Amino acid sequence: MKVKILKIRLSEEFQNHDEQQLNRFLRQHEVIKITSSMINGSENFWSVIIYYDEGYPTVHEKKNKYTADSELPLNSDEVKILDSLRLWRNEKAKQQNLPSYFIATNKELLSIAKYKPAKKEELSDIKGFGRHKIENYGMEIIGLLENI
């Protein structure tokens, strides 16, 4: 038996995406038990714990990736995150002698600032973040997000 923990954020911007992620996981695994709890804080969300059997055959689906709507205004936390991400990206680009958009585009940084991934693996939910970017920059990005 294995355990998967998912977060269902209640904000209109993320709820649909998070529910799709939960539904996709439920379709792909043999679920033994599910528990959930409402977490209240600066960001209210449901924490869903899924106990499942790994031996169940999975269905491969194309994953919908998150991309932030650049028309929506940023809150103060998101502005701090975005500024920190841009500074990090520019320093990284100088170190590697690359254009900054090779490290991450403005749209990708905006999506990270709004999505606020808590684990390196969650970066794969961001449109434009594939295995290469996650392996090369994932831990630094998560570390940066944890320290803001």
Brief characterization of the structure:
It comes from Chryseobacterium lacus. Helices cover 46% and strands 18% of the residues.
Written account of the structure:
- 46% of the residues lie in helices and 18% in strands.
- The chain has a 3-stranded antiparallel β-sheet, with helices on one face.
- The protein contains 5 helices and 3 strands.
- Helix 2 (76-96) packs across helix 4.
- The protein has 2 domains: 2-53; 76-146, HRDC domain (DNA polymerase, domain 1, Orthogonal Bundle).
- By secondary structure, the protein is of the alpha+beta class.
- Strand 2 and strand 3 form a beta hairpin.
- It has helices spanning 12-28, 76-96, 100-103, 106-115, 131-146; strands at 2-9, 30-39, 45-53.
- It comes from Chryseobacterium lacus.
- InterPro entries: HRDC-like_sf, HRDC_dom, HRDC_dom_sf.
- Residues 75-148 form the HRDC domain.
- This is Aldolase.
- One of its GO terms (molecular function) is nucleotide binding.
